[in-house]
Amino acid sequence: MTLLKGKNALITGASKGIGRAIALRFAQEGANVGFTYLSSVEQGEALAKELEGLGIKAKGYRSDASDHVAAEKLMQDFIADFGTIDILVNNAGITKDGLLMRMSEEQWDGVINVNLKSVFNLTKAATKFFMKQKYGSIINMTSVVGIKGNAGQANYAASKAGIVGFTKSVALELGSRNIRCNAIAPGFIETEMTAKLDEKVIADWRNAIPLKRGGQPDDVANACVFLGSDLSAYVTGQVIQVDGGMLT
Ligand SMILES: NC(=O)c1ccc[n+]([C@@H]2O[C@H](COP(=O)([O-])OP(=O)(O)OC[C@H]3O[C@@H](n4cnc5c(N)ncnc54)[C@H](OP(=O)(O)O)[C@@H]3O)[C@@H](O)[C@H]2O)c1
């Protein structure tokens, strides 16, 4: 398991769910892993220990991905600790659902800032290092909701659709420097984020999925291993759906 051997990866929002699975899969493939968390401090500290147990270099940073200044500092700290950055995974995300008529400005701004502005913050901060070494893989976590829309998630869908446009633009801007930028659009993945949903909504989603099951965080992490590794050296500007065929 050495697909990522020697590569330094930074993953945002890895204290739980999909981000945590990506951190563990990357470490199993030999990557050194830096990751962020915000409110789940104990889980973040526990993950750092678990990763170190896999024999790679690992460090957790408590950092708000939506804060532009904090993102710059995070990148400087990561480079000071790891030397270079090869893979950036913009995974941090939240939901603040509600029908548009009842959606507050705080619900809108909160989701746009954490889900979309964070991707700008971290990608911009990493780009100067990627450009210097003429190598880099950026993986942005969008969602099938950003492709299809979802009633009650206008803020979330807009943030995730924004990530798709951002990903394709960055791929066009930076391809000549051998910097790749792709997005992953998970469908219904069983994490704390989806555990909040009503049981009937979950049952309806499962029934509509051709593979007839919810996805696991590792299903998404495996796609990240592909995009982070040199197996995908000729893949950029793409949105890979990891959704059990949900939108097919
Ligand atoms: N689960 C799904 O079905 C699904 C489907 C499509 C897309 N996605 C996307 O996949 C990503 C991960 O989702 P998940 O299901 O794993 O969610 P989750 O279990 O709720 O985990 C979210 C992670 O993001 C971190 N986070 C939240 N706000 C942050 C901030 N401001 N700065 C840094 N980290 C922050 C959280 O850290 P703390 O707890 O430490 O604050 C946590 O580690 C999200 O972008 C989500 O939109 C998920």
Give a structural overview:
Keywords: Fatty acid biosynthesis, Fatty acid metabolism, Lipid biosynthesis, Lipid metabolism, NADP, Oxidoreductase. Catalyzes the NADPH-dependent reduction of beta-ketoacyl-ACP substrates to beta-hydroxyacyl-ACP products, the first reductive step in the elongation cycle of fatty acid biosynthesis. Belongs to the short-chain dehydrogenases/reductases (SDR) family. This protein is α/β, with parallel strands linked by helices and 248 residues long. It has a single domain, classed as NAD(P)-binding Rossmann-like Domain (Rossmann fold), CATH 3.40.50.720. 48% of the residues lie in helices and 15% in strands. It is built from nine helices and seven strands; from the N terminus they run βαβαβαβαβααβαααβ. The protein has helices spanning 17-28, 41-52, 68-82, 105-133, 144-148, 154-174, 192-195, 199-207, 217-228; strands at residues 8-11, 32-37, 58-62, 87-90, 136-141, 179-186, 239-242. It has a seven-stranded parallel β-sheet with strand order 3-2-1-4-5-6-7, sandwiched between helices. β1, α1 and β2 form a beta-alpha-beta unit. α1 crosses α9 and α3 (68-82) runs parallel beside α4 (105-133). The radius of gyration is 17 Å and the shape is globular. The chain starts with 7 loop residues before the first strand and ends in a 6-residue tail after the last strand. NADP nicotinamide-adenine-dinucleotide phosphate binds next to α1, β2 and α7.
